[in-house]
Amino acid sequence: MRINPDVLIIGGGLAGLASALHLSKKGLSVTVIEKASYPRHKVCGEYISNEILPYLQWLGVNISELQPALILNFEFSAQNGKTARTRLPLGGFGISRFALDNFLYEKAVHNGCTLITDCVTGVAFENEVFTVKTSQHIFTSKIVLGAYGKRSNIDQVLARNFISKKSPWLAVKGHYTGEFDNSLVALHNFQGGYCGVSVVEKNIINICYLADYETFKKYKNIDDYQKTVLCKNQKLKAVFESSTPIFEKPLTISQISFDKKNPVENHILMIGDTAGLIHPMCGNGMAMAIHSAKIASELVLDFYSGKIESHTLLEKIYTKEWEKHFRNRLIMGRILAKALTHKTFTSIMTSMAASMPFLLSIIIRQTHGSPIKINE
Predict the structure, then answer these.
(1) What is the distance between the terminal CA atoms of the chain, rounded to a whole angstrom?
(2) Of the candidates 222, 41, 19, 236, which has an alpha carbon nearest to the alpha carbon of residue 107?
(3) Closest CA to 330 of 268, 267, 261, 243
(4) Gap between the Cα atoms of 94 and 303, Å rounded
(5) Residue 65 neighbours by CB distance under 10 Å
(6) Is pTM beyond 0.85 here?
(7) In percent, how much of the chain has pLDDT > 90?
(8) Nearest-angstrom CA–CA distance, 112 and 199
(9) In whole angstroms, what is the distance from residue 69 CA to residue 93 CA?
(10) What whole-number distance in Å separates Cα of residue 185 and Cα of residue 198?
(11) Contact at 8 Å (CB) between 181 and 45?
């Protein structure tokens, strides 16, 4: 079966679905290929800065319908338990990917988007047209957006540089019941990694951490690792001891790469984590993924209206816009992550931030953006 949409989106996560909503709202035919069905849980920090709210409202996404946790404060703790806290400049909200992705999916279907559950097996670009193959379909389109996340078989199909390199990182995520400050997003440092804790809808606590595989593999299982390594940080220990798991077992992802990725590969405009994995130290990957969808969608509309005259120019402008909005934030995240692997430095920095909270606010501002402006 051959399908010929104006825009084909590979991946139906936050970036892919936001793009589908944007482009369909403006009258383009959109097909989204997603390998998994909705709703589903995903490994994610599940905190979003309010910088993204104007855009979500423009898309017709009323987040308040999902009753998210309203987050106002940020807390950071070092391995030794020293803690610094500050108010978030814009505030944010906590919402699970289980709820949000499904919400966006339903709205995309309502908008007339075609969503297909399948896996992409091949992508070719010839004579200014893409041909995308799956196990059941062949698609042709002038525009393809890559929104398939951190790591996929498609990266191997496209022979992207990072996919051949071994990565030392894995991520673990679980939902819990218990007592935790609904207004707080916390990031706790431990030997070999970082753990984010915040509340999402229905007072569920989301705990998601990034761990160094070399440290992790010394332990028989996740529970032993958490008790032995994470719980050396007394703040984290208190969280785990006062929380009860909801999942039968935590979700995990291995081989997470923070290597630089190109925002355009094989003429595909990459959005969200597909374009460049946002380090947890940026603390705002969900907002950045949705923002990247806005940038790409606006340029695709300019391409179809004739304002952007060629695919080559489209790729050039998108790369420039990606760098403008996200390059510095990604660099800051990498710098902070590397610096905070040094225990002494982390302790000193945390002590300084605890006594001078404005320092923590400055760092947060470097990794967060301003409220997104809507240009009708």
Answers:
(1) 36
(2) 19
(3) 261
(4) 35
(5) 9
(6) yes
(7) 61
(8) 33
(9) 5
(10) 5
(11) no
Residues 6+ apart with CB under 8 A from 304: 6, 28
In this structure, whether the domain defined by 2-165+257-367 belongs to CATH 3.50.50.60 is answered with yes
Token duo for residue 215:
């440290």
Per the CB < 8 A criterion, the answer to whether 172 and 209 are in contact is yes
Mean pLDDT of 350-361: 59
CA distances to 186, 187, 194, 280 from 352, rounded to whole Å, are 17, 17, 19, 21
Q: Does residue 262 sit in helix, strand or coil?
A: coil
- The residue type found at 239 is V
Starting at the edge strand found earlier in the chain, the sheet holding 264-265 runs: 114-117, 30-34, 7-10, 143-146, 268-270, 264-265
Give me the residue label for tokens 């071994």: 166
Tokens of 346: 């982390």
Sign of CA dihedral 103, 52, 144, 152: negative
Of the candidates 49, 56, 6, 9, the one whose C-alpha atom is nearest the C-alpha of residue 27 is 6
- The more confident residue out of 161 and 190 is 190
CA 165 vs CA 55, 260, 265, 271: distances in Å: 36, 12, 17, 21
Q: Locate 8 and state its tokens.
A: 């084909």
Q: Which two tokens stand for residue 322?
A: 């990606």
Query: What are the angstrom distances between the C-alpha of 226 and each of 206, 219, 274?
Result: 15, 9, 29
CA distance 233 to 237: 6
Q: Phi, psi at residue 103, to the nearest 5°? A: -60, -45
For residues 217 and 229, give the distance between their C-alpha atoms in angstroms, rounded to a whole number: 12
| Token digits of residue 50 | 């309010």
pLDDT of residue 330: 74
Share of residues in the chain with pLDDT > 70 (%): 87
pLDDT in tens, 124-176: 999 999 999 998 899 999 999 999 987 778 888 787 877 777 777 889 999 99
Indicate the pLDDT class of residue 191, thresholds 50, 70 and 90: confident
Q: What is the phi-psi region of residue 173: left when phi exceeds 0, alpha when psi lies from -120 to 50, beta otherwise?
A: beta
